[in-house]
User: What shape does this take?
Amino acid sequence: MTLIEMAAVIVVTGIIGLGMTLGTRGVLLHYQSDSVRQDLRQYGNSVMREIVQELNVAQKIEVDGLNGFSRIKLYRFYNGLTPDVVISCHQRDGIQVNYDAPAEGHLKFPSIGPYRNSGQRTVWVKDFVVTSEPDSRPGLGIFKQSYLHIELTLSMDQDVFINGQTTTEDHYFHRGAFLGHAYIMKKLSNDASTIS
Assistant: This one.
């Protein structure tokens, strides 16, 4: 084996090794992003399910704002003065029920975890909006107010750059909830006020 043949083997082996390294790096990068995406999807679906469960047992609901996001105050009884449950949102902490993580503190926002530190990927809440159905006919006002649209948008900043900018992707979750208990209590209180 001559020196030229040996050099050629080393160069070809180096090129193959470099190609395998770059290919493996790309696969790992996609795997890491998919892992964080899966955590976001699981969190979004779980937290929306928790919110709808809380809404279904409330007799009175008020929606206002806090920290630039919607806030929901739930009353177990229609004549209650202070809310029994407060659902709020923070950009870095996610949805909170009574200022703690939902499901008795077990459903934490996935901002901490594998592939999310040292500038790899940042996860945050972009938007949390709660609106009632708009009134289209006067006779359906109470019914329409008892139907809420809950929209949650979670965002993920990646360490992938396009034209020198970090890429961001949004994950959108929407639930519609008919507030049966609240509708019945509003209807009963309106009927009682018209009788007296």
Remarks:
- The mean pLDDT is 82.
- Strands lie at 60-66, 69-75, 85-90, 94-97, 122-132, 147-162, 165-178.
- Residues 166 and 178 are 39 Å apart (CA to CA).
- The radius of gyration is 26 Å.
